[in-house]
Design brief:
- It is a single chain.
- The strands form two sheets. This protein has a seven-stranded mixed beta sheet with strand order 5-4-3-6-7-8-9.
- Strand 3, helix 5 and strand 4 form a beta-alpha-beta unit.
- The chain is globular and about 50 Å long.
- The protein has a domain at 76-244: Vaccinia Virus protein VP39 (Rossmann fold).
- 27% of the residues lie in helices and 23% in strands.
- By secondary structure, the protein is of the alpha/beta class.
- It is built from seven helices and nine strands, in the order αααββαβαβαββαβββ.
- Bound molecules: S-adenosylmethionine.
- Residues 85-88, 111-112, 114-115, 117-118, 132-135, 138, 160-162, 177-178, 231-232, 234-236, 239 line the site of S-adenosylmethionine.
Protein backbone atom coordinates (compact mmCIF):
# COMPACT_ATOMS: atom_id res chain seq x y z
CA UNK A 1 0.00 0.00 0.00
CA UNK A 2 1.32 3.48 -0.87
CA UNK A 3 0.54 5.93 1.92
CA UNK A 4 0.00 9.58 1.04
CA UNK A 5 2.82 11.84 2.22
CA UNK A 6 2.07 13.82 5.34
CA UNK A 7 1.45 17.39 4.37
CA UNK A 8 3.33 19.13 7.10
CA UNK A 9 6.29 16.85 7.67
CA UNK A 10 8.59 18.01 4.89
CA UNK A 11 11.12 15.27 5.31
CA UNK A 12 10.10 12.60 7.80
CA UNK A 13 13.25 10.59 7.17
CA UNK A 14 15.50 13.53 7.92
CA UNK A 15 13.62 14.28 11.11
CA UNK A 16 13.65 10.65 12.15
CA UNK A 17 17.36 10.31 11.43
CA UNK A 18 18.05 12.83 14.15
CA UNK A 19 16.45 10.50 16.67
CA UNK A 20 17.98 7.22 15.66
CA UNK A 21 20.88 6.12 17.81
CA UNK A 22 23.99 4.98 16.00
CA UNK A 23 23.69 1.65 17.71
CA UNK A 24 21.49 -1.38 17.71
CA UNK A 25 18.35 0.21 16.26
CA UNK A 26 18.17 1.28 12.64
CA UNK A 27 15.62 3.44 10.88
CA UNK A 28 14.39 0.32 9.10
CA UNK A 29 13.81 -1.43 12.44
CA UNK A 30 11.71 1.49 13.68
CA UNK A 31 9.75 1.58 10.40
CA UNK A 32 9.05 -2.15 10.68
CA UNK A 33 8.08 -1.83 14.35
CA UNK A 34 5.72 1.02 13.45
CA UNK A 35 4.08 -0.98 10.65
CA UNK A 36 3.66 -3.96 13.00
CA UNK A 37 2.15 -1.69 15.66
CA UNK A 38 -0.43 -0.33 13.22
CA UNK A 39 -1.38 -3.78 11.99
CA UNK A 40 -1.39 -5.79 15.22
CA UNK A 41 -2.21 -3.30 17.97
CA UNK A 42 -4.47 -0.86 16.13
CA UNK A 43 -6.13 -2.12 12.92
CA UNK A 44 -6.66 -5.62 14.28
CA UNK A 45 -8.42 -4.16 17.34
CA UNK A 46 -10.95 -2.36 15.18
CA UNK A 47 -9.62 1.10 14.36
CA UNK A 48 -10.62 1.51 10.70
CA UNK A 49 -10.27 5.21 9.83
CA UNK A 50 -7.59 5.36 7.10
CA UNK A 51 -6.60 8.88 8.16
CA UNK A 52 -5.81 7.61 11.66
CA UNK A 53 -4.00 4.50 10.43
CA UNK A 54 -1.91 6.58 7.99
CA UNK A 55 -1.01 9.10 10.70
CA UNK A 56 -0.02 6.35 13.16
CA UNK A 57 2.06 4.71 10.42
CA UNK A 58 4.03 7.90 9.83
CA UNK A 59 4.68 9.54 13.20
CA UNK A 60 8.05 8.41 14.62
CA UNK A 61 6.96 7.49 18.16
CA UNK A 62 10.59 6.82 19.11
CA UNK A 63 11.12 10.61 18.85
CA UNK A 64 8.59 11.21 21.66
CA UNK A 65 9.77 8.77 24.35
CA UNK A 66 12.42 9.44 27.00
CA UNK A 67 16.00 9.08 25.87
CA UNK A 68 16.99 5.45 26.41
CA UNK A 69 13.41 4.16 25.91
CA UNK A 70 13.45 4.26 22.09
CA UNK A 71 13.45 0.50 21.67
CA UNK A 72 10.25 0.30 23.79
CA UNK A 73 8.50 2.96 21.70
CA UNK A 74 6.28 0.53 19.77
CA UNK A 75 5.33 -1.68 22.73
CA UNK A 76 1.63 -2.11 23.42
CA UNK A 77 1.66 0.05 26.56
CA UNK A 78 2.00 3.57 27.94
CA UNK A 79 5.56 4.63 28.82
CA UNK A 80 6.91 7.05 31.43
CA UNK A 81 7.91 10.58 30.42
CA UNK A 82 9.19 13.45 32.60
CA UNK A 83 7.24 14.94 35.54
CA UNK A 84 5.78 11.51 36.47
CA UNK A 85 3.51 11.58 33.42
CA UNK A 86 3.04 9.11 30.56
CA UNK A 87 2.90 8.88 26.78
CA UNK A 88 -0.33 6.96 26.15
CA UNK A 89 -0.51 3.44 24.70
CA UNK A 90 -0.56 3.64 20.86
CA UNK A 91 -3.97 1.95 20.60
CA UNK A 92 -5.66 4.41 22.94
CA UNK A 93 -4.23 7.36 20.96
CA UNK A 94 -5.60 5.88 17.72
CA UNK A 95 -8.95 5.03 19.34
CA UNK A 96 -9.40 8.53 20.78
CA UNK A 97 -8.49 10.26 17.51
CA UNK A 98 -10.86 8.01 15.58
CA UNK A 99 -13.61 8.53 18.15
CA UNK A 100 -13.18 12.29 17.89
CA UNK A 101 -13.77 11.96 14.13
CA UNK A 102 -10.88 14.22 13.17
CA UNK A 103 -11.01 15.39 9.54
CA UNK A 104 -8.73 17.47 7.28
CA UNK A 105 -9.59 21.14 7.76
CA UNK A 106 -10.59 20.65 11.42
CA UNK A 107 -9.47 22.87 14.27
CA UNK A 108 -8.65 20.62 17.19
CA UNK A 109 -7.78 21.08 20.85
CA UNK A 110 -5.85 18.63 23.00
CA UNK A 111 -5.66 18.86 26.79
CA UNK A 112 -2.52 17.17 28.14
CA UNK A 113 0.30 17.64 25.61
CA UNK A 114 2.69 15.34 27.50
CA UNK A 115 5.33 14.24 24.98
CA UNK A 116 3.47 15.81 22.03
CA UNK A 117 2.87 12.43 20.36
CA UNK A 118 -0.95 12.55 20.25
CA UNK A 119 -0.76 16.19 19.11
CA UNK A 120 1.47 15.05 16.22
CA UNK A 121 -1.02 12.32 15.24
CA UNK A 122 -3.83 14.89 15.36
CA UNK A 123 -1.76 17.43 13.40
CA UNK A 124 -1.13 14.88 10.65
CA UNK A 125 -4.90 14.91 10.01
CA UNK A 126 -6.35 18.26 11.13
CA UNK A 127 -5.62 21.76 9.80
CA UNK A 128 -4.61 23.20 13.17
CA UNK A 129 -4.01 21.73 16.61
CA UNK A 130 -3.94 23.65 19.89
CA UNK A 131 -2.55 21.72 22.83
CA UNK A 132 -2.29 22.66 26.52
CA UNK A 133 0.04 21.16 29.14
CA UNK A 134 0.18 22.12 32.81
CA UNK A 135 3.86 21.15 33.27
CA UNK A 136 6.09 23.86 31.70
CA UNK A 137 9.06 21.51 31.13
CA UNK A 138 6.90 19.00 29.23
CA UNK A 139 5.31 21.77 27.17
CA UNK A 140 8.71 23.22 26.27
CA UNK A 141 10.15 19.85 25.25
CA UNK A 142 7.05 18.98 23.20
CA UNK A 143 7.10 22.36 21.44
CA UNK A 144 10.76 21.89 20.46
CA UNK A 145 10.22 18.28 19.35
CA UNK A 146 7.19 19.14 17.22
CA UNK A 147 9.02 22.03 15.61
CA UNK A 148 12.06 19.86 14.84
CA UNK A 149 9.80 17.24 13.28
CA UNK A 150 8.31 19.87 10.98
CA UNK A 151 4.85 20.35 12.51
CA UNK A 152 4.08 23.98 11.79
CA UNK A 153 0.37 23.59 12.56
CA UNK A 154 0.58 22.89 16.31
CA UNK A 155 0.52 25.51 19.05
CA UNK A 156 1.57 24.46 22.56
CA UNK A 157 0.51 26.46 25.60
CA UNK A 158 1.27 26.05 29.31
CA UNK A 159 -1.81 26.25 31.51
CA UNK A 160 -4.91 24.66 32.95
CA UNK A 161 -6.55 22.90 30.02
CA UNK A 162 -9.81 22.35 31.91
CA UNK A 163 -10.60 25.95 30.99
CA UNK A 164 -9.93 25.32 27.30
CA UNK A 165 -8.42 27.85 24.88
CA UNK A 166 -11.17 30.52 24.56
CA UNK A 167 -9.39 32.69 21.94
CA UNK A 168 -9.05 29.75 19.52
CA UNK A 169 -12.60 28.34 19.83
CA UNK A 170 -14.81 26.88 18.41
CA UNK A 171 -13.19 23.46 17.96
CA UNK A 172 -14.36 20.65 15.70
CA UNK A 173 -12.72 18.15 18.03
CA UNK A 174 -11.38 18.21 21.60
CA UNK A 175 -9.36 15.32 23.04
CA UNK A 176 -8.51 15.22 26.75
CA UNK A 177 -5.68 12.83 27.60
CA UNK A 178 -6.04 12.91 31.40
CA UNK A 179 -8.98 11.75 33.52
CA UNK A 180 -11.26 14.18 35.37
CA UNK A 181 -14.22 13.92 37.75
CA UNK A 182 -16.63 15.47 35.20
CA UNK A 183 -16.83 16.93 31.70
CA UNK A 184 -15.59 20.54 32.10
CA UNK A 185 -18.36 22.98 31.09
CA UNK A 186 -15.83 25.28 29.37
CA UNK A 187 -14.73 22.48 27.05
CA UNK A 188 -18.31 21.65 26.04
CA UNK A 189 -18.96 25.30 25.33
CA UNK A 190 -15.86 25.61 23.15
CA UNK A 191 -17.12 22.90 20.78
CA UNK A 192 -18.43 23.94 17.37
CA UNK A 193 -21.96 22.75 16.57
CA UNK A 194 -21.34 19.18 15.42
CA UNK A 195 -18.04 19.14 17.35
CA UNK A 196 -16.87 16.08 19.30
CA UNK A 197 -15.23 15.98 22.74
CA UNK A 198 -13.52 12.79 23.97
CA UNK A 199 -12.57 12.67 27.65
CA UNK A 200 -11.90 10.09 30.38
CA UNK A 201 -14.34 10.75 33.28
CA UNK A 202 -14.67 8.92 36.59
CA UNK A 203 -15.09 9.08 40.37
CA UNK A 204 -11.60 7.66 40.85
CA UNK A 205 -8.43 9.62 40.03
CA UNK A 206 -6.96 6.61 38.23
CA UNK A 207 -9.85 4.74 36.57
CA UNK A 208 -12.32 6.29 34.19
CA UNK A 209 -14.87 5.73 31.49
CA UNK A 210 -14.00 7.20 28.10
CA UNK A 211 -16.87 9.54 27.22
CA UNK A 212 -17.74 11.16 23.89
CA UNK A 213 -19.82 14.35 23.90
CA UNK A 214 -21.25 15.58 20.59
CA UNK A 215 -22.60 19.13 20.43
CA UNK A 216 -25.78 18.76 18.40
CA UNK A 217 -27.07 22.30 18.86
CA UNK A 218 -26.33 25.51 20.80
CA UNK A 219 -27.71 23.94 23.99
CA UNK A 220 -27.95 20.30 22.93
CA UNK A 221 -25.26 17.76 23.78
CA UNK A 222 -25.33 13.97 23.33
CA UNK A 223 -23.09 11.96 25.65
CA UNK A 224 -22.05 8.30 25.45
CA UNK A 225 -19.63 6.11 27.39
CA UNK A 226 -17.33 4.07 25.15
CA UNK A 227 -14.80 2.07 27.18
CA UNK A 228 -13.14 1.65 30.58
CA UNK A 229 -9.73 3.33 30.66
CA UNK A 230 -6.94 4.32 33.10
CA UNK A 231 -5.39 7.76 32.59
CA UNK A 232 -3.28 10.01 34.81
CA UNK A 233 -5.42 12.61 36.62
CA UNK A 234 -6.66 15.82 35.02
CA UNK A 235 -5.55 18.46 37.54
CA UNK A 236 -7.18 21.88 37.43
CA UNK A 237 -10.11 24.14 38.14
CA UNK A 238 -12.63 21.83 36.45
CA UNK A 239 -10.53 18.72 37.17
CA UNK A 240 -9.07 17.20 40.33
CA UNK A 241 -7.65 19.33 43.12
CA UNK A 242 -3.84 18.86 43.15
CA UNK A 243 -3.86 18.54 46.98
CA UNK A 244 -5.90 15.31 46.66
CA UNK A 245 -3.12 13.47 44.76
N1 LIG B 1 -1.05 13.23 25.04
C1 LIG B 1 0.17 12.89 25.71
C2 LIG B 1 1.18 12.26 24.79
O1 LIG B 1 0.85 11.98 23.64
O2 LIG B 1 2.32 12.09 25.23
C3 LIG B 1 -0.04 12.03 26.91
C4 LIG B 1 -0.51 12.82 28.02
S1 LIG B 1 -0.46 12.19 29.64
C5 LIG B 1 -1.39 10.73 29.55
C6 LIG B 1 -1.58 13.40 30.35
C7 LIG B 1 -1.02 14.79 30.44
O3 LIG B 1 -2.04 15.65 30.92
C8 LIG B 1 0.15 14.93 31.41
O4 LIG B 1 1.26 15.42 30.75
C9 LIG B 1 -0.38 15.92 32.45
O5 LIG B 1 0.61 16.77 32.98
C10 LIG B 1 -1.41 16.67 31.66
N2 LIG B 1 -2.44 17.38 32.43
C11 LIG B 1 -3.11 16.99 33.54
N3 LIG B 1 -3.99 17.92 33.91
C12 LIG B 1 -3.88 18.95 33.01
C13 LIG B 1 -4.54 20.20 32.84
N4 LIG B 1 -5.52 20.64 33.65
N5 LIG B 1 -4.18 20.98 31.80
C14 LIG B 1 -3.21 20.59 30.94
N6 LIG B 1 -2.55 19.41 31.05
C15 LIG B 1 -2.90 18.60 32.07
Amino acid sequence: MVLPKLRRVPDGNEALAAWVHHGMISKADFAQARADMVEHQIARRGVRDPLVLDAMARIPREAFVLSGWEDEAYEDQPLPIADRQTISQPFIVAFMVETAGLRPGDRALEIGTGSGYAAAVMAAIAARVYTIERHPTLAKAARTRLRELGFGNVEVRVGDGTLGWPEAQPFDAIIVTAGGPKVPAELREQLAIGGRLVIPVGDSMHRQSLVRVVREGPEKYREEALADVAFVPLIGEAGWDPSRR
